[in-house]
Amino acid sequence: MPQILIASTLDDLSPVHDLDRDQRARLAASGQIAAVPSGKRVTAIQEHPWMLYLLSGQVCLIQGERKELIQAGSRRALQPLFSEHHLLDQAVFTADSELLRLDRQLYNSLNAPGRPAVPGLLDELDLSDAEGALLGKLYHACKEDKLALPTLPKVARAIQEAMKDPNITSARLARIVQVDPAVTGGLIRLANSVFYRGMKTIPDVRNAIIRLGIDVTRSVVMSLSMQQLFRTKSPLMKHRMKAAWNRSVHISALSYVIARHCPRFNPEHAMLAGLVHDVGVIPILDYVSRNEIQVGEDELEAAIIKLHRLVGELVVSYWGLGPEIIEVVRHSGDWYRDDQELPNYCDIVRVARLYRLNQSESRGPLPRYDEVPAYYKLGLVFPVGGETVDVIAEASEELAVVMAMLKGEGKGP
């Protein structure tokens, strides 16, 4: 059971001691102290979201061939155990110890509000030789424009091109969509779903497009065709691609549901934003697969952590999805970002991501989805009968419908 952390614990720690007293108190409120048994091993990759400090006991820091013994109370113990940039480091506790975890993102937002979370240039990335050959290869592939970016699926490209015609008709869109049975079925299912259901059941794609509208159809077609991109022939990469697809589908469905409860937002556009928020992992995994690179899980994870957002920006820019989607790829993982007065699609995806993490993958002092600025900006907190309603939790049926549609599950009418 984690111990309660008091603000004065942070007073001597570097670099957090440079924060003012109120900022240290806020950082302490989100942190935790955990008991760690002797023999426990932790890695920089696993602990990347947190700044770790040794409060009691002893730990051996392993950096490649180099080992450093750190004692609690020493000058070294006042610094973070792991560097933010050396993700292949490990540590083995050589005595029963106490470990302090502080939220790295919260520290960064307090230390430098509005600081860009992702470097604008690859040259600004802190890439060390010790982090493995893969990271270097990916870095140079990006820098030299040799990283193969995925192309939009055929039906999505055709829809993008057709939408340039201001006089586009539902009949023409139907002819384009019908070349892809999976997309066709998805559109018909959505038109007959609880979201758009009318007096009559829609039997064909042309009438589905008429019911949904052309703008909605465009976003939905883009989303329904994306599953093709999360495929690989490499047996070693299949589990990662599948995991990335399932995660993206869940966040996409959550984004759709959240947007339905927020004025001014298009739920279908939010669905697309959620689906492509982490698209940068696709070229990275594809690069490893195509070049048959033998790589360890830690080395691959380090490359993904450092490069996935920057690569994702290259992909959505290449697809021409617009600045709103680029913003989602760039900043939807910055939980505390609050640099705009009005909410945007990035806020929607940010809340969706945190909601999923809170439900299934929470580790350490991760903020609750309803504790970040985006949640309040979106107006998701409102009372009904004197009690606050969790609109996401109340929308489980809607969530299931969207996830089934994106995965191509369920039968058409």
TrEMBL record:
- Domain HDOD: where? 149-335
Please identify the protein, giving its name as recorded.
Answer: HDOD domain-containing protein
Quote the InterPro entries the UniProt record gives.
cNMP-bd_dom_sf (IPR018490), HDOD (IPR013976), RNase_Y/CdgJ (IPR052340)
List the Pfam families: HDOD
Q: Which organism is it from?
A: Thermochromatium tepidum ATCC 43061
